[in-house]
Specification:
The protein contains 28 helices and 28 strands. It is an alpha/beta fold. Strand 3 (53-56), helix 3 (65-74) and strand 4 (81-85) form a beta-alpha-beta unit. Helix 12 (313-320) packs antiparallel against helix 13. The protein is elongated, with a radius of gyration of 52 Å. It starts with 5 loop residues before the first strand and ends in a 12-residue tail after the last helix. Bound molecules: ligand C2E and magnesium ion (2 copies).
Length: 720
């Protein structure tokens, strides 16, 4: 500090004495800037400028050291004051020192001046530094205090007392965090840390072990609050050790992380579970399956994978809404859980697909015995929002590692087996067999091909007349879809509609048919071609599509056809899938004035009872029963029974697939009014139909008549 220029203020009436003083200071190597004052007013003025030290004569004519010292001290600060006097006596010097002077130097002993100045300046500097440090400390202490008491957590100090740890200090946050007041925690008989820790009993020992080994710990654990709540805590502690290295105190910080933890727990749950059903989700399922696969391979055992797909879930969703659909999934999940065994992994893979992994070595016979029980559980009627619904499922079974030694292959094969179960009529199960994969592959190819066909407009409609059996007059036509796969290759519906149904493409096809039929009816109306009525076939998919009624209305409105000129055919199986939804849709269609026909009658449930409950106008006896009449006695009886019942219900009966005259004669005699089949006309293009329609009746194909017409009259009158 003595390198810089020192501001020295002389309070001295003698210029010469000031000079001498200055010289003695400079002689000692100090660099000095001197100002001299001899009155009080000048002195006060001078003190406004930077001053390092005041050197004052004891008494002057207009001023004195005592007064100067007083004024200086009144100003505060810590500027050293040295009395430099010629005549000062011992007692005056002592007085001055008592009054706060830092030293005194006699003018006849000026060699003391420079050391005194150096010493006092040095000490003033030390005092200044000390003051600074203490101010800083105080500030820091304050900041810490504020922080500690406002932290959303608790700062503490624990003192070791034997095996117990008592709180020595706890910040204000303790009340919020633990529910205990500071007084209850701190103090000799305050709370022991163990009372706060919740859960694992060995926690405290573990913390102590870490403190001794590493001097600190950071853990997350739970605490028990005064009101019994349990909270998650982030806890960091550091050891204060004694000379022998033993832990005497722990100082640390606790923060409440319950909210984050709960969020995390929920996230963890969501990441592993299907939210709707609470079952494992696909990710967990695949991990578990992979683990199981590894395990059985290691032990030369086998495991079983069941791939479960609900059969009619889409219809439930479409007709009852998603809430009902969700409820059904939850109930099915519950049933699957209830009928599975400990150790089985049950998952929802998505939509209406579930899977079960059975990790234990089971024999095929056992699996084949157990799986039907699952199917029985699923098919038990369930109640959703006051309605009774029945759901069935198709189950594919893959045994591993035989049917695949990685997760992807296994799942694919179980899926193919499930598909085979669907094909086998649903509500059943199938074990995987290699040929199923080829089928699955061809399904994919077919689906794409059908979509492309729609896009490229490769479908066309053929029309087959329905005739009055008594005179072969044309009552109407049935539209049958054809797929023009190449200019000379026309595929009939029976060869692709089943695929279209399985792949879901059928709905789009049926929509196209609906529009095309209406346009054709309009064209024939415009051209004055009489056609009676045109029937179109609706698949279950299209029928249960909630948009179907609206679409039909639109087509009718846009084409301007009379709804009485249209007819819709649905099969028994379609009708039975969901009785309530069916009824609603059928009534809407009937209200429009469109005729409703039950197709392929006799192949499904054949319950004439429901005919009464639905607005059905006509039924078509399935071709299978017509084929062998009048020779097959059983079929004859069936046809008679159907006719008798339908007549009593005032439902018109149509016989389809009539190929020869004997069939026609029999049916006519049995009371069947209408027939359809190759005997009368093949399904044919709209243009080819025109001539027939204008004539108004069908002529019998001579080759077919020849079979039974004894007179051999080609194209002869229909004989009864
Ligand atoms: P379906 O509604 O029972 O139609 C009658 C089927 O029998 C037609 O086959 C028809 O060509 C055939 N057929 C008519 N008369 C005779 C006969 O005397 N002898 C024999 N052996 N067969 C006869 P197609 O066109 O192959 O249709 C098969 C099935 O495909 C239809 O049975 C119907 O269920 C379905 N289908 C046809 N067109 C459509 C459509 O546009 N949409 C939907 N969803 N299904 C359709
Ligand atoms: Mg039909
Ligand atoms: Mg039919």
């Amino acid at each position: 500090m003595f390198d810089r220029l020192l501001n020295v203020l002389f309070v001295e009436d003698s210029v010469a004495d000031t000079e001498i003083g200055l010289l003695s200071l400079e002689a000692s190597g100090l660099k000095v800037l001197v100002r001299r004052v001899e009155t009080e007013s000048d002195y006060l003025l001078a003190l406004r400028d930077p001053t390092d030290i005041v050197l004052s004569d004891h008494s002057m004519p207009a001023f004195d050291a005592k007064r100067a010292l007083k004024l200086l001290r009144e100003q505060g600060g810590d500027i050293p004051f040295i009395v430099v006097s010629g005549r000062i006596g011992e007692s005056a010097a002592v007085d001055m020192m008592k009054a706060g002077a830092n030293d005194y130097v006699r003018k006849d002993n000026l060699e003391r001046l420079a050391p005194a100045v150096r010493r006092e300046l040095g000490e003033a500097e030390n005092r200044r530094r000390a003051r600074l440090t203490s101010d800083k400390l105080q500030q820091q202490e304050q900041t810490l205090d504020t922080l500690m008491h406002n932290l959303p957590g608790m700062v503490y100090r624990l003192r070791r007392a034997g095996t117990a740890w008592h709180f020595d200090f706890a910040s204000d946050g303790c009340k919020d965090l633990t529910g205990y007041d500071q007084e209850m925690l701190v103090g000799g008989d305050g709370l022991d840390l163990t009372k706060l820790l919740y859960g694992d009993a060995g926690q405290q020992d573990e913390l102590l072990r870490q403190l001794e080994a590493e001097g600190q710990f950071t853990v997350e654990h739970q605490i028990l609050c005064s009101n019994g709540d349990v909270k998650w805590i982030w806890h960091r502690g550091a050891a204060v050790k004694g000379p022998a290295g033993q832990v005497l105190y722990v100082e640390g910080f606790l923060a409440d992380i319950t909210a984050q933890k709960m969020g995390q727990t929920k996230l963890d749950y969501l990441a592993h579970h299907d939210v709707l059903t609470g079952l494992s989700n696909r990710t967990v399922f695949e991990e578990e399956l992979a683990r199981s696969l590894e395990r059985v391979k290691r032990h030369f055992e086998s495991g079983t994978l069941l791939f479960i797909d609900l059969d009619n879930f889409k219809e439930i969703n479409d007709s009852w809404g998603h809430q009902s659909g969700d409820a059904v999934l939850r109930i099915i999940a519950g049933r699957l859980t209830a009928c599975s065994r400990k150790g089985d992994i049950i998952a929802r893979l998505g939509g209406d697909e579930f899977a079960i992994v059975m990790d234990d070595d089971q024999r095929t016979e056992d699996i084949a015995r157990n799986v039907p029980r699952i199917l029985e559980e699923i098919v038990r009627p369930l109640k959703v929002q006051g309605r009774e619904i029945t759901v069935s499922a198709s189950i594919g079974i893959a045994v591993y590692p035989a049917n695949g030694d990685d997760v992807t292959t296994l799942l694919r094969n179980a899926d193919a087996a499930m598909y085979a179960a669907k094909q086998a009529g649903r509500n059943t199960f199938r074990f995987f067999a290699k040929k199923m994969n080829e089928r699955a592959k061809s399904m994919v190819v077919m689906r794409n091909a059908l979509h492309n066909a729609l896009r490229r407009e490769e479908f066309e409609l053929h029309y087959q007349p329905e005739v009055r059996l008594s005179d072969r007059s044309i009552l109407g036509l049935e539209a049958l879809v054809r797929w023009k796969r190449a200019p000379d290759r026309l595929m009939t519906a029976e060869h692709f509609i089943p695929f279209a149904e399985d792949t879901g493409v059928v709905t789009a096809i049926d929509h196209w048919v609906m529009r095309s039929v209406c346009m054709q009816a309009r064209d024939w109306n415009d051209a004055g071609v009489p056609f009676g009525r045109i029937a179109m076939n609706l698949s279950a998919h299209a029928f249960y599509d909630p948009k179907v009624v609206g679409l039909l209305e639109t087509c009718i409105n846009e084409s301007g056809v009379d709804p009485g000129q249209l007819e819709i055919e649905i099969t028994e199986t379609t009708l039975m899938q969901d009785m309530i939804a069916t009824r609603v849709t059928l009534e809407k269609i009937a209200d429009m004035g469109v005729t409703l026909t039950l197709d392929d009658f006799g192949t499904g449930y054949s319950s004439l009872n429901y005919l009464r409950r639905f607005p059905i106008d006509r039924l078509k006896i399935d071709r299978d029963f017509i084929k062998e009449i009048p020779w097959d006695e059983e079929d004859v009886q069936i046809c008679r029974a159907i006719l008798a019942l339908a007549t009593s219900l005032r439902i018109e009966v149509v016989a389809e697939g009539i190929e020869d005259q004997e069939q026609a004669v029999f049916l006519h005699h049995a009371g069947c009014g209408t027939g359809q089949g190759y005997l009368f006309a093949m399904p044919q293009s709209a243009e080819d139909c025109v001539e027939l329609l204008r004539e108004g009746h069908c002529t019998i194909d001579p080759s077919r008549v020849a079979k039974t017409d004894e007179d051999g009259v080609p194209g002869g009158q229909f004989r009864l």
